[in-house]
UniProtKB/TrEMBL annotation:
InterPro entries: 5hmC_binding, EVE_domain, PUA-like_sf, THYN1-like_EVE. PANTHER family: THYMOCYTE NUCLEAR PROTEIN 1. CDD domains: EVE (cd21133). It comes from the Bacteria. Pfam families: EVE. Residues 2-133 form the EVE domain. This is Putative RNA-binding protein with PUA-like domain.
Length: 142
DNA sequence: GCCAACGTTGGC
DNA sequence: GCCAACGTTGGC
């Protein structure tokens, strides 16, 4: 299983909206960046991801799971753009802020720190465990 | 609200 | 194929 991070501005698509979709999940659509798309094409069912609120909040708020493999993005007529579906698993007990991530010496290699503009990004297993710990949340990798 | 960084587009 | 212009993202 691999780990990822999905970014969204809370006033465009928020964690609460994601949670409201329940187990059926929702398309992670609207991505128009090749790098981000390519990561989604690599995702497998059951992969886990962090849900990050960019801009206003700048914090990791929840854990999601990939529930549909990459498929054409329904919001685009352009066949270049694919996306996966994700569903909310649970919130972090404590949201983990960007400043907290940046100030942790173990997380200096995180893509979130080094490439702030990439909206879908890989997370290492080690980073996953550290961020979960910062969020007082069990990694709960089955 | 500003602006640096980055990605994409399109003229040549 | 280069690169200037442009649009967007997202931290500050």
């Amino acid at each position: 299983m691999n780990f990822w991070l999905f970014k969204s501005e809370a006033d465009v698509w928020s964690w609460d909206q994601q949670v409201a979709k329940g187990d059926q999940g929702e398309e992670w659509n609207g991505v128009r960046n090749y790098q981000a798309r390519n990561f989604m094409r690599q995702m497998q069912i059951g992969d886990r991801g962090f849900f990050y609120h960019s801009r206003a909040d700048k914090e990791i708020v929840g854990i999601v799971e990939v529930c549909a493999l990459s498929h054409p993005d329904s919001t685009s007529d352009d066949p270049r753009w694919d996306c996966v579906d994700i569903k909310a698993i649970r919130p972090l007990t404590q949201p983990v802020s960007l400043s907290k991530v940046k100030s942790d010496p173990r997380l200096t290699e995180m893509v979130l720190v080094n490439n702030s503009r990439l909206s879908v990004q890989p997370v290492t297993a080690e980073e996953w465990n550290i961020v979960c710990a910062l969020g007082s949340t069990e990694p709960q990798v089955d």
